[in-house]
Design brief:
Layout (H helix, E strand, L loop, with lengths): L5 H15 L3 E2 L2 H6 L14 E3 L4 H13 L4 E4 L16 E4 L6 E5 L4 E5 L4 H7 L5 E2 L10 H6 L7 H4 L2 H4 E7 L5 E3 L13 H5 L8 E8 L1 E2 L3 E8 L3 H13 L6 E5 L1 H11 L9 E8 L1 H17 L3 E5 L2 H12 L1 H6 L6 E4 L2 E2 L5 H14 L6 E4 L4 E8 L4 H20 L15 H8 L3 H11 L19
Parallel strand pairs: 2-4, 3-4
Antiparallel strand pairs: 1-2, 5-6, 6-10, 7-11, 8-9, 8-10, 12-14, 12-15, 13-14, 13-18, 16-19, 17-19, 18-19
Helix pairs in contact: 1-3, 9-11, 9-14, 14-15
Length: about 475
Amino acid sequence: MTRATAAQSGACIEALAARFGGRMTTALPVRQEHAGGEGGAESTPPDAVLFPRSIEDISAALALCNDHRMPVIPFGAGTSLEGQLDAVRGGVSLDLSGMNRVLDIHGDDFDCRVEAGVTREQLNHELRHSGLFFPIDPGANATLGGMAATAASGTNAVRYGTMREACLGVTAVLSDGRVFHTGSRARKSACGYDLTRLLVGSEGTLAVIAELQLRLAPIPEAIVAIVAQFPTLAAAVQAVVLLMQAGLRPARIELLDELQMSASIAYSRLERLAATPTLFIEVHGPPAIVAEEKAQVTAVAVALGATVQTAERPEARNLLWKARHDAYWAARALMPGGGSIVTDACVPLSKLEDSILAARREADAGGLTCPIVGHVGDGNFHMLILFDADHERQRAAAAALARRIGERAIACGGTCTGEHGVGLHKRALLARQHGTAIPVLAAIKHALDPFGILNPGKTLPEAARQP
């Protein structure tokens, strides 16, 4: 779709104001707060921001916007990294953060139902006395609706899976305001098309997710964190492959290269650790199994030249994982005020070492500052490419490096984005990865959103043709 005309936009905003009163605003400071996420320089504000409080509100708002051909950009906590929130064609930012009720908890069945604006930390606080927790942990305190929309995963994915596995079903609203439900509370189903997984990862381009039915996990009886520091980046990656080939199922295996470790030591005050390639590993389970896995992890790491420390007290473990979650901001502090591009390659484990080392060699050859972190247990790594935002040649070199990392991942059977989504930044790579399937994706988009009002300009390449 093209941008709504001034007349359409004005009429739609008037209709929304009449329907929602003070829960719709055109105030510039509020619009600017909804102009983008955390991952880039995009900052195009929407024309208005609406704060729904119910599914009925979402339905009414979408029906009005559809009638006026007004774009709608769903908004959660604003933590997305691929430009998903930029109002490239104007429109209304639909801020779902006020829909933040935990509706049901079924402890005996290990599932719950929540509104889209509930954050993962809020849900785990609600679950604190139940013996259960929600394990998907992307680091940021994102909303669960946003996590589903971007198919988020994070540090626990190697054991507990991603939002695709965690979502049993959703309640969603189509562009014309129709409400529909997907999935069930059952652990499996062979009943028709899998609409739940169609919507998980759709980035607000097919429907607005209003409620989610989520799978929970029991809190582990014992938890141990292991910090293994290696002499080389290659040795650290080799350790990951050996651990996974041994059939271990750690909850977390996180890689930080020497540059990222240097940044994290300074930012998070990790003075006891060295600025060398490091694996943060966490094992969960009954005490005997945890002790056995700790011994196996230690043996593999030491055989590859690592020094190993462990942390069992919650305070010590939380300090380590806070440092890992703060890695993005620690890395940004290496170049204050600079620009950044976050890559999100995910490759088969057998290709992980080659992919990471190739990215490191190219970054070093180009003179770019590029720390690496990764959820390497499932082959996912992020190189944060830092550059002088006022230096056009550096900006171009950073963009070229990010593109080549994605292309190499696709070429070896992987994907250009393991968990951040496509958004604005990876549409060309999506076309390269999916090739002849692009017309199918475009047909689905057209069928569910015929006027193209839902988060236009995102996910599908501009050249994708609709029927």
